[in-house]
Specification:
By secondary structure, this protein is mostly beta strands. Helix content is 10%, strand content 66%.
């Protein structure tokens, strides 16, 4: 299933690359380390994809795909830049040998887009709500993945 979701995300990114006018690329560090890509859609929404490592359930591979909306912009510090609050929903999957997780991902992101520099810096919380599945040795079991709620990180992206 992870291969199917990853293949779908790569196909979507390739389909949008012909129109590559509103891309943002960067990284996310906190509950793990992920490479982050954002693609602006029409209006105030964008697609966000993350791929990397998560430290929440041990050292896991992690992939998250989100559809994000700009909920509000605030002009708190006009000389530094414009503040934003984005929220979204999507899917989070990951795992390692003998453990996997999958779940619905929500996201809340508060950050600033700097004036004079094409950089966005934000603090985001992306809980992944779903089961953690242990398997191996002819046995398997699933429990609620409580560590998926602790997915907090800082992200920085470069706007093209």
């Amino acid at each position: 299933m992870k291969k199917l979701i990853l293949s779908l995300a790569i196909c979507l990114m390739a389909a949008f690359s012909a129109n590559a006018q509103d891309w943002r690329l960067g990284g996310r560090v906190g509950a793990g380390f992920q490479l982050q890509a954002e693609y602006g859609l029409s209006g105030d929404s964008y697609l966000e994809g993350r791929f990397g490592m998560s430290f929440l359930n041990g050292l896991d591979a992690d992939f998250t795909a989100l559809h994000m909306w700009n909920v509000a912009t605030m002009n708190w510090t006009p000389s530094a830049g414009e503040w934003f609050f984005d929220a979204g929903t999507g899917l989070g999957v990951g795992g390692r040998a003998h453990f996997a997780y999958v779940g619905v991902a929500g996201s809340a992101k508060l950050g600033i887009e700097f004036s004079g520099a094409p950089v966005r810096l934000s603090l985001d919380w992306t809980p992944v709500i779903g089961p953690g599945i242990g398997y191996g040795g002819g046995h398997s079991g699933a429990v609620f993945n409580a560590m998926g709620l602790a997915n907090i990180a800082v992200s920085a992206v470069y706007c093209f």
